[in-house]
Specification:
Layout lengths: L5 E4 L4 E5 L4 H13 L1 H12 L4
Amino acid sequence: MNPSLEASWRHPLGIARNLGFPAHEIRKIRVIVESNQQSLLEAWNGYFGALL
């Protein structure tokens, strides 16, 4: 696993852990995830099922 990966909760969107990304990159990642949240959630549920 890449030590720079960060983990996010599905509901609500938030950073669970950051292992190396600078704050400005976290902001960029968050904007990307927020703007694609619906399609990411649909893909997640399609693969894993709606568990929650």
